[in-house]
TrEMBL record:
PANTHER family cross-referenced by the UniProt entry: CYTOCHROME C OXIDASE SUBUNIT 2, CYTOCHROME C OXIDASE, SUBUNIT II
UniProt-recorded name of the protein: cytochrome-c oxidase
Compartment(s): Membrane
First-tier enzyme category under EC: translocase
Length: 265
C-alpha cells in the first residue's frame, strides 16, 4: 500500500492501519476522493437502476400484459402497503452511509488539520508581500525559493507583511492564508523529489499573478549539506520592496517594477 512509503520516514507508521487514512496530504485527499467517487458511483447506479426498473415495471401498457388489476388508476390516492418497510430500509441505509461518511471524512480532515509532529520536522516561516514570498529558516536564512528535504514533515508558519495573501502548492495539496498580524500553520510532506510551484491564491494587487515561488524538494543529505552552508547573512531575500522576487526566473523584473512603482507613489 502506498501509505507505507512515506509513513516509514516520518514516524507515522503505527497510525496507518486504521480505517482513517494517514500519510501525506496527497494520500489523505486522494483516499477521500476515491471513497466519495466509489460510494457516489454506487449510490448513483442503485438510484438510477431502481428508477429505470420501476419505469419499466409501471410502463403505460404494463397492466394489459401482466393482467395486474391492483395497479392504481389515474387520480387514485395511494393507500400504502407493506407497513413502510421499503421506506424504513432506504432511510436507515442512507442514514448509516451518510453518517459514517461524515464521521470518516471528519476523522481524515482532523488528522490533516492537526497531525502528529515528528522530531525531524523542518520548520520554515513564510512571509508574503506584494509581490513575492520570503522563506525564513530557523537559523535566520532567508530565501525566495523554498528548499525542503524529501519524505520529511515540513511545518510552515505563514504570515504577510502587507495585505491578505494565500500560499498554495497544488501538487502537494497544501494551501493556507497569509494574513498580516496573524500566523497560520500548515504542513506537508513531499514524497517525490523535484521542483514544484507555489503561488498566491488571494487576489492581492497588480503583481498577484507573478507572485510565485519555487519549491525544491531535495534528497535528505543534499538538503542537510545545503542548509549547513546557510546563515542569516547570506540569504537572498530581503525587505518588503520586492527584491526577493529576483530569485525566481521570469518574474523578478515584473515584481520589482510593480513594487517600486507602488512604493514611489
Ligand atoms: Cu498575494
Amino acid at each position: 500500500m502506498i501509505l507505507d512509503h512515506t509513513g516509514a520516514g516520518v514516524g507515522l507508521a503505527p497510525l496507518q492501519n486504521g480505517i482513517v487514512p494517514r500519510g501525506t496530504r496527497v494520500q489523505v485527499f486522494q483516499q477521500i476522493f476515491d471513497v466519495f467517487l466509489v460510494l457516489g458511483t454506487l449510490v448513483g447506479v442503485v438510484v438510477v437502476g431502481y428508477m429505470l426498473y420501476n419505469a419499466y415495471k409501471y410502463r403505460a401498457d404494463a397492466d394489459v400484459k401482466r393482467g395486474n388489476e391492483d395497479l392504481p388508476t389515474l387520480g387514485e390516492l395511494p393507500t400504502g402497503s407493506g407497513g413502510g418497510g421499503k421506506l424504513f430500509v432506504s432511510f436507515t441505509l442512507s442514514a448509516v452511509i451518510v453518517i459514517s461518511l461524515i464521521a470518516w471524512t471528519y476523522g481524515a480532515l482532523a488528522f490533516v488539520e492537526d497531525p502528529p509532529t515528528p522530531e525531524d520536522t523542518v520548520e520554515v516561516e513564510v512571509v508574503g508581500f506584494q509581490f513575492g514570498w520570503k522563506f525564513i529558516y530557523p537559523n535566520g536564512y532567508q530565501d525566495s525559493t523554498l528548499r525542503v528535504p524529501v519524505d520529511t514533515n515540513v511545518k510552515l508558519s505563514i504570515t504577510s507583511e502587507d495585505v491578505f495573501h494565500n500560499i498554495g502548492v497544488p501538487e502537494l495539496r497544501v494551501k493556507s492564508d497569509a494574513i498580516p498580524g496573524q500566523t497560520t500553520d500548515t504542513w506537508f510532506i513531499a514524497d517525490e523529489r523535484g521542483t514544484y510551484m507555489a503561488q498566491c491564491y488571494e487576489l492581492c494587487g497588480v503583481g498577484h499573478s507573478y507572485m510565485t515561488a519555487e519549491v525544491k524538494v531535495m534528497p535528505q543529505d543534499e538538503y542537510e549539506a545545503w542548509y549547513a552552508n546557510t546563515t542569516a547573512e547570506n540569504g537572498t531575500a530581503s525587505g518588503g520592496n520586492g527584491t526577493a522576487g529576483n530569485g525566481t526566473a521570469g518574474n523578478g523584473t515584473a515584481s520589482n517594477s510593480t513594487a517600486h512603482a507602488l512604493g514611489g507613489a
